[in-house]
Amino acid sequence: MLGMREDTAPATMEALLEHVPPSQRRFLRQQRAVLRSGGRLPGAACAYVCNGRDVNEHMHVLRRDDDDRPQIILACLELLDPPASLPEDVEDGYWSYTRGQAMPFLDMRCMLLLGLGEAPGTLDREGLRRLHGRYRVAGLLSRLRRWLDARDGAERLRLVLMPRRPQGTPLLFTASVLVRDDRGRACAAAGTLAPLLEHKAASVGGIRRLLLAMTGCRDGLWDWDVWSGQVYYSQSYLAMLGHTAETFPAELGSWIRAIHPDDHEKAVALPMKVAASPDAGDAFVCTYRMRHADGSWLWILGRGCVSGRDSAGRALRVVGMHTDVTALQEERDALEGKVQTDPLTGVSSRYHLERVLQHADGQGRPLYAVMADVDGLKLVNDHLGHEAGDTLLCRAAHLLQAHIRKEDCLARIGGDEFVILFFCPGAVVRKRLAAIRQALLHRRQDSGLPVELSFGVAGSDKGGMDAEELLRRADVAMLRAKKRRRAASHARIRAWLERHTGREVASGDPRL
Fold first, then answer.
1. Is residue 402 within 8 Å of residue 347, measured between CB atoms?
2. CB distance 319 to 307 below 8 Å
3. Least packed by Cβ within 10 Å: which of 55, 196, 236, 253?
């Protein structure tokens, strides 16, 4: 494409810039420095001359390190056709701006492209008047001023300058921030002005060549022509969803129809918002579900960025990638389940209990905490082994679980301690607790491992109690109850152990 042989092709970026005219190298080096600086700029675009050929360059950051510095940048060079009705020897124009200037400085090529003469200089009032006669510049200049004045705004801007006459040539205007002041505003910026032959968007061909070059990539790439509604889906994109070009037409509706109904609002609204206005930014990231051709659901990480806007700020093209993160999501869900569930008893964990309490804080509805402590666990462990102790804990958990509602929460928060959160009035809590005590009395008639529990209750019909204070009060009440019933539970557990093991258990054993 550039007329180079494989054995002489440049191996480094600096070597590539040696094939660029000296007048353009400085800007390209500045642009690359900005992209490598560690900001969140998703990519950059620029038109320039390389080895005597007019090219349009698209750069996209594929991977960043922990400090947000780009590690892998993928670029596509698109060969541009000579602009119609423009001198063949006119290269793309370059402009610069520093805060304090009324208007930007234009080089000779910018002047030629705009039809303002051949001498470089600052755009004056007469030049601006002539420009208004040839192009629809009011919206572009307004958008440019807002972009320059935005505090810590987007690092890159790309607009299309549309001619007033049908035979005119649209121009692609690009801008990049070079330096910001202490208020976050752009105090120096520069960019390019290039012919754009297709008035709806830059040629899709170059991006498609980029996508075809990346067929080995696991990510699925897409290229959305906003004006026409057509979308190019790469082969890896289609394969990810189990489709072909015939079953997944190259239109936006194919993507929308494949989105899970529960994720439709967030998955579609964000790209549409970004496409409608630069006020929402030029890039987006979203995780949602899409239907595979076999009917299953895949978790997709969708990323996209606007590669060009018209003078009103509306996106012309949006390009991006889809990554199948189903395995990662399933691992995350499994890990979340493990974190929220006590692995021994299957009831909720302390972590889940704390999240429930945090969510319930300040809701003003009834909330009671019942602290339940398993009596004699250490003694069972020592006389019968830890497997028997685990069985005792599981039986206690199952008994408690059987007497609470789905909206309540049972959690194991320590070795022998459980907490029940009841979201109901105190009268209902007392009835539930009475039913649990009745079940414990019924179990004493069995010959199996005895389950003895001590309870403490705290809470309010109006809620509003601090979570830490709620649990503290329930724990204090439980310890008082445990002290009152220690002798009786001591006798029952000792008698069962002696019958089961045939060995005497000391009446003063502190482990009871």
1. no
2. yes
3. 253
Which pTM value belongs to this model?
Answer: 0.41
Whole-angstrom distance, CA of residue 314 vs CA of residue 226:
9
Q: Is residue 279 exposed (0-12), middle (13-18) or buried (19+ Cβ within 10 Å)?
A: exposed
- Whether domain 13-195 has CATH 3.10.580.10: the reply is no
Residue at token pair 């022998």 = 416
Q: In Å, what is the CA distance from 403 to each residue of 225, 394, 444, 457?
A: 59, 15, 18, 16
Backbone angles phi, psi at 434, to 5 degrees: -65, -40
Q: Supply 386's token pair.
A: 């830890």
| Domain ranges (residues) in the chain | 13-195, 215-330, 341-501
Query: In 3D, which of 96, 101, 133 has the Cα closest to residue 114?
Result: 133
**Contact criterion met (CB below 8 Å) for 293 and 247:** yes
Q: How far apart are CA 192 and CA 178, in angstroms?
A: 13
Place of tokens 């006590």: 342
The string of pLDDT tens digits covering residues 236-254 is 899 899 999 899 999 999 9
What secondary structure does DSSP assign to 218-239, as a single string?
SSEEEEEETTTTEEEE-HHHHH
Across 284-311, average pLDDT: 88
Say which CATH class 341-501 falls into: alpha beta
Radius of gyration of the chain (CA): 35
* End-to-end CA separation in angstroms for the chain: 85
Around Cβ 216, how many Cβ atoms within 10 Å?
6
